[in-house]
């Protein structure tokens, strides 16, 4: 765990300040004012030292605690209306139905399909007849081959696997951000 030995402020204050800086990208002087409004008087130089000292350590701890994903994924895209504009919603779901990643894109192309990889690489992917997903996965396999990796993503087509998760995604606990006010 992260050691706060020798710190002059409580651990919660330091964690809150580092999280706020990293998450929202405010300046140190703005963060100084925000903390002052909450009754914590701290200099912007001290905030800089906290971020330099603790941000990378906290990121490492968070990466270790990240839950592993299933090796088999389902990739799909659909056309949705977001704030009055139509766009493509790409999403990756593991075989247990947990949403791994999603992305909105104006275009249906290879670049959009390749961006869903923040949870590592799957061993196998089920896709429908989407040309963008096929091209994106072929591009990932080519990149793996180019760097000398023996690993490949096995791609298989299954309309039923991706269609079943369409209903589940929209019905149960999915981030329906296009329905927000």
TrEMBL record:
* Name of the protein in question: DDE domain protein
User: One short Pfam family name for this protein?
Assistant: DDE_Tnp_IS240
Q: Where is the DDE domain?
A: 72-119
Out of the domains of life, which is the source?
Bacteria
Q: Name one GO molecular function term.
A: DNA binding
For biological process, the GO terms are:
DNA recombination; transposition
Q: Which NCBIfam families match?
A: transpos_IS6
Q: Which UniProt keywords apply?
A: DNA recombination, DNA-binding, Plasmid, Transposition
Taxonomy-wise, where does this protein's organism fall, top ranks first?
A: Bacteria, Pseudomonadati, Pseudomonadota, Alphaproteobacteria, Rhodobacterales
């Amino acid at each position: 765990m992260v050691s706060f030995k020798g710190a002059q402020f409580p651990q919660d204050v330091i964690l809150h300040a580092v999280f706020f800086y990293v998450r929202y990208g405010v300046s140190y002087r703005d963060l100084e004012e925000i903390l002052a409004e909450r009754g914590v008087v701290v200099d912007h130089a001290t905030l800089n030292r906290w971020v330099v000292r603790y941000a990378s350590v906290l990121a490492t701890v968070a990466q270790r605690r990240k839950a592993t994903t299933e090796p088999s994924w389902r990739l799909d895209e659909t056309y949705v209306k977001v704030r009055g504009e139509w766009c493509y919603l790409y999403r990756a779901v593991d075989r247990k139905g947990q949403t791994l990643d999603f992305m909105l894109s104006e275009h249906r192309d290879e670049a959009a399909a390749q961006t869903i990889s923040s949870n590592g690489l799957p061993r196998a992917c089920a896709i429908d007849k989407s040309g963008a997903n096929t091209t994106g996965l072929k591009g990932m396999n080519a990149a793996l081959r180019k760097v000398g990796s023996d690993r490949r993503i096995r791609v298989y087509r299954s309309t039923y696997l991706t269609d079943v998760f369409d209903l589940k995604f929209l019905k149960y606990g999915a981030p329906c951000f296009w329905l927000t006010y």
